[in-house]
Amino acid sequence: MNWHIFLPGLFFLLMVLTWMSAKRFRSLAPLRKNFRLLIILFFISMVIFVLNFHPISQLTDFGRILHIVWLVFIFLVMVLAIRLIKHIIFDFLIGRRVMERRLKVVEDVTGIVLYIIGILLIADNYLNIQITPLLATSAVITIVAGFALQNILGDLFSGLALNFDESLHIGDWIQLGSVEGRIEQLRWRSMKIRTRDGYLVLVPNQNASKEIVTVFGGSKAQPAIRMTIGISYDNEPDQVMEIIRQKIYQLEALVHDAPVEIWISSFDDFAVTYTIRFRITDPVLMDKAAAALRHHLWYAFKRQGITIPYPIRTVISAPETSRTDDKSLVHETLTRNEILAQLPSDHLDRIAAVSQLLLFGQNEQIIREEEEGRAFHIIISGQVAVFRKGQCITTLSPGNYFGEMALFTGDKTSATVIAQNECRILRIGSKDFKDLIAMSDQIAQAISEVIARRRARNIEQDEEWSKRKKSSIGSESASIFKRIKRYFELSGLDDRTDPEFFPGGSSSQR
User: Fold this and answer.
1) What is the domain extent for residue 71?
2) Residue 440 and residue 490: Cα distance in Å, rounded?
């Protein structure tokens, strides 16, 4: 019986099993790439069977043709076997988790070694080529090539060593010497690192294996930012730490669940050094977050009179700055404001004495929605954006104001206000205002009407509102009047709190 008949049957069976297994099991899907090779082996095995079939083999001598066909057949079987071995080793034994972190060079080198071994075995056993003398005569060539390829081989073996070290993965954010960025590729000669500026840096594997590498983590890493800042000895540590903490919690990239740590790290010659440590959501944002914090702290320290001293020991007497211009600007701003203009002139003088001219930087938060109302703000220069529930509802320019309800009723803030550019703002503290101003029914009535009209302008959107405007202003004004009297603890409410007593704002001119 001609046993060659089993070869086509064997490869046909392998074709069926490969197709069904790859279709049913997702983990076996890579086996489909061997399906074409199985078809070729099936047809070659059919040729071998036909050439060895007794009636046909008697017609002529197919010995030389069979020798070549068998050589091709054995070589293709070797290729199939190596592919299966690599699939078993790297997809099953090592596993998917390791596949994600390993270097591709390991699989490539394994394949090259197996092909060399397979070809040598075919040459020795099938072609009767003595490989021992061949290896001996090539020893000198190998030594010369080794010296010539010393650096390349060093990178290759360093890459293999890094591969089996589980510390580095594709996607990790690392610092390697002066290079900092995310690992994009781990190759046989070098690793590719994408820096924060978007540049691609190729670091030879030998350098990576010799340098100290700091791993910040993968794509979900939450790296810590550590900063130091020097503050004058004249400023209280508790106040400084509280301002720093407030500005850190306003950063968009902050990990709010992680602790924010601030401590005094040293007493230096010219300043008290504070160390700050907090975590952010993405290593790419490290520089941006640190820059934003420094930017906001500069303005916050300037508003609070906190000094960042110059790193010198020379005593410099700074000339006193005249505040005449500031006082004039404050008084002029107060008199032009439509709400505060309802107050008598002696009241405005008292307010001017406690008002603050503050400077806010771009993207700095001035007030936050639903926080305790502490102040009334008038914009002198710059623009601010008003956000409610995360949506920008309007922008305010010089002359506009916000926080009036906090000043007159003590209500919580209804929106978040953020500086769009550098802004100079006049702030009146609600506590100072309440302590200084002798509120009366007449003043409360006039102020409530102005606030009601302003709020009506803000929500005026269609004709239907315009028709109801007069009655709505009266109703709103009555409500605000009650809250002002309650906040300033005035006498009991009288009949003037009825909406009919507020005819759309005319009484404010009396």
Assistant:
1) 3-150
2) 7
